[in-house]
UniProtKB/TrEMBL annotation:
InterPro entries: SpoVG, SpoVG_sf. Transmembrane segments: none annotated. It comes from Coprococcus hominis. This is Putative septation protein SpoVG. PANTHER family: SEPTATION PROTEIN SPOVG-RELATED (PTHR38429). The keyword Nucleotidyltransferase does not apply. The gene is spoVG. Could be involved in septation. The keyword Nucleus does not apply. Belongs to the SpoVG family.
Length: 86
């Protein structure tokens, strides 16, 4: 799996959410609405989610293992930092 494009859209209002990101995988599959969040320990990503009937939010698309999540997060946060410098 190769992430072939990352598009960052900054968020105008103040708050913990800093950007919304779309990624393209292998030039064939797009995942929208990945959020860049400022947490107590720094920036992290939150995958697209939906509110379930019990009130909890559940990811609707997400990496299956920790390695993939960390790699994806690293790529997205690097692109986010680049967008701030532009």
């Amino acid at each position: 799996m190769q992430v072939t494009d990352i598009r960052v859209r900054g968020v105008e209002k103040e708050g913990k959410m800093k950007a919304v990101v779309s990624i393209t995988i292998d030039n064939e599959f797009v995942v929208h609405d990945i959020k860049v969040i400022q947490g107590d320990k720094g920036l992290f990503i939150a995958m697209p989610s939906r509110k379930a009937a019990d009130g909890e939010y559940r990811d609707i698309a997400h990496p299956i293992n920790t390695e993939t999540r960390e790699r994806l997060q690293r790529m997205i946060l690097e692109k986010y930092q680049e967008s701030l410098e532009a």
